[in-house]
Design goal:
This protein is mostly helical. 77% of the residues lie in helices and 0% in strands.
C-alpha cells in the first residue's frame, strides 16, 4: 500500500481512507482494468459494421493490443480473477467484458442467419484463440517461436478460417 501511495503522490495512510486493505485496492484496480478492456473491445467492435466478421476480428486485435500496452494490468486481471479472494465486482466486470464478445458474436449470428451453433459455442473458441495469442505475446513465447509474427494478420486469418469452417458445417 505504501508503494502504491508513493507512486500516486499521497501519504501512506491515504489509501486506507478508500480501501480496507491491499486486497481491496488490488480488486479495485483489477475491476478498472476489466472496464478498460471492455471499452477497448467495444470501441473496436463499433468501428466496424455491426454483425460483420471485421467487428469480431477488430475485438480480437484490440484484446491483444491491450495486453501489449497494459502487460501488468493483464497479469493482475487474470491472477485476481482466478483468485478466491476476488470480489463480486471483479467477477461482474469480467463477465461484462466477455459479454462484449458475446454481443458481437450474437450480432454476427443474427446478420448471417446462424441458428446453431449458439452464441456461446461460437464465442468460446474465439476467446481461447485470442486469449491464447495474448498469453503467448505476454510470455514472449510467440516471439521465440515466430520472430516478427504479425499478430493482427494472424488473428485476421485465423478468425476468417474459423468462420469459414462454421459455414461449411452449416451446409453439411
Amino acid at each position: 500500500m505504501a508503494d502504491a501511495a508513493r507512486q500516486v503522490g499521497v501519504s501512506s495512510a491515504a489509501p486506507y481512507r478508500h480501501f480496507a486493505d491491499r486486497e481491496a485496492l488490488l480488486d479495485a484496480v483489477c475491476a478498472r482494468a476489466f472496464e478498460k478492456l471492455t471499452e477497448c473491445l467495444s470501441a473496436a467492435r463499433d468501428r466496424a459494421e455491426r454483425g460483420s466478421i471485421e467487428a469480431i476480428i477488430a475485438m480480437g486485435q484490440a484484446y491483444v493490443g491491450f495486453v501489449v500496452e497494459s502487460r501488468s494490468l493483464f497479469e493482475l486481471m487474470w491472477s485476481r480473477h482466478l483468485d478466491s479472494l476476488s470480489t463480486e465486482l471483479t467477477e461482474d466486470v469480467g463477465r461484462r467484458c466477455f459479454g462484449t464478445l458475446l454481443e458481437g458474436v450474437d450480432a454476427y449470428r443474427t446478420r448471417h442467419g446462424i441458428g446453431q451453433p449458439g452464441t456461446m459455442e461460437i464465442a468460446l473458441p474465439l476467446w481461447v484463440m485470442v486469449h491464447g495469442t495474448a498469453s503467448l505475446v505476454l510470455g514472449r513465447n510467440l516471439e521465440a517461436v515466430a520472430p516478427g509474427a504479425d499478430t493482427h494478420n494472424m488473428l485476421d486469418r485465423a478468425t476468417r478460417a474459423y468462420f469459414a469452417g462454421l459455414a461449411v458445417t452449416q451446409h453439411a
